[in-house]
Amino acid sequence: MNTHHSDILILGTGPAGYTASIYAARANRNTTIISGTQPGGQLSITTDVENYPGFANTIQGPWLMEQMQQQAANVGVQIISDHINSVSLQNDNTRSCTGDSGTQYHAKTLIIATGAQAKWLGLPSETKFQGHGVSACATCDGFFFRNQEVAVIGGGNTAAEEALFLTNFASKVHLVHRRDTMRAEKILQNRLLQNEKITPHWNHTLAEIIGTDNPLGVTHVRLNSTVGGEDKTVAVNGVFIAIGHSPATRLFKNKIKMDPHGYIITKPDSTQTEIPGVFAAGDVTDAVFRQAVTAAGMGCMAALEAEKYLSRNE
User: Fold this and answer.
1) Known catalytic residue at 300
2) What is the residue range of 43's domain?
3) CA distance 173 to 155
4) Does residue 48 have an active-site annotation?
5) How far apart are CA 122 and CA 7, in angstroms?
6) Are residues 139 and 50 both part of a single domain?
7) For 22, phi and psi rounded to 5 degrees?
8) Does position 301 have pLDDT exceeding 80, yes or no?
9) All residues at 6 or more sequence positions from 248 whose CB lies less than 8 Å from its CB, including other chains
10) Residue 140: active-site member
11) Measured between alpha carbons, how far is 141 from 166 in angstroms, rounded to an integer?
């Protein structure tokens, strides 16, 4: 069995992971990053990015992640293509992870940056138009739908918040929920129902997203009644799936403290988890903002805290 040793081991190659690796390597620490099953994280499947600082024009998510990868490699980060299938966090001196390759990775500190993924409905048309009118992040993509009509699918806090945010750009927001009342907090429901730009479609589900093939773009949504009522076809240019996110933390279940939704809990104003020498950064610990720039910021924090931990314990 192959064994790999490093000072700082990072799981995940999204903005949090790459930023952490760059700071760690620049601190002259032996740094290894494991790419996992989706190198680049959520940005690897995001097309237009307009809100990442430093770029005057729209950039592509995959391109941005390629630039981060090259920067990490240039400062000496060891980037390894593997998928971790088991971890051991309790040894005070060494964190151990085993990859699908059979390699064991040992490190003095571990930064968990495995991210989170939006929940999708699983419709073929949803997949077809992802990045071309279908999104799971209003904060990321709402700007592209100025003065257009959009649909938000969901009935919880996420859907209510997305719908309200989109009223800053869209001419009209169609909220689609399979029940006749929302699960969102009452204060959000009141704000939503009082907003003239929002039209609820109660007791309906999204059946199909309709659009053009060349170029790819959304033109309509087909809604099915859940109570035997009338089905609808509504003209929209954008569809926001707002049924929640799932943090990629199954690997750490019962091994590290998490909240009820599976997000890793860190100490206040820190990326330090309950286990000394183990840190968490990015969407894996952030159920609120879920932005590339906040993930990168937390990656920086995690690397600086890991360096301080190593310095104190050497």
Assistant:
1) no
2) 3-117+245-313
3) 14
4) no
5) 41
6) no
7) -65, -45
8) yes
9) 12, 114, 115, 116, 117, 284
10) yes
11) 9
Rounded to whole angstroms, the Cα distance separating 221 from 292 reads 29
268: its two tokens: 């206040």
Catalytic annotation, pick one of 7, 82, 141, 286: 141
The Cα–Cα gap between 114 and 250 comes to 10
Burial (CB count within 10 angstroms: exposed 0-12, middle 13-18, buried 19+), residue 101: middle
For the chain, give the longest Cα–Cα distance.
69
Beta strands of the chain (E only): which ranges? 3-11, 31-34, 48-49, 59-60, 78-80, 84-88, 95-99, 104-112, 116-118, 134-135, 149-153, 172-176, 198-201, 204-213, 216-225, 232-235, 238-241, 245-247, 278-280
Distance of CA 304 to the CA centre of its chain: 22
CATH value at residue 139: 3.50.50.60
Same domain, 103 and 251: yes
Q: How much is the average pLDDT of 51-74?
A: 93
pTM summary value? 0.81
**Given the residues 140, 283, 286, 300, the one annotated as active site:** 140
Statement to judge: residues 109 and 126 lie in one domain: no
Average pLDDT, the chain: 94
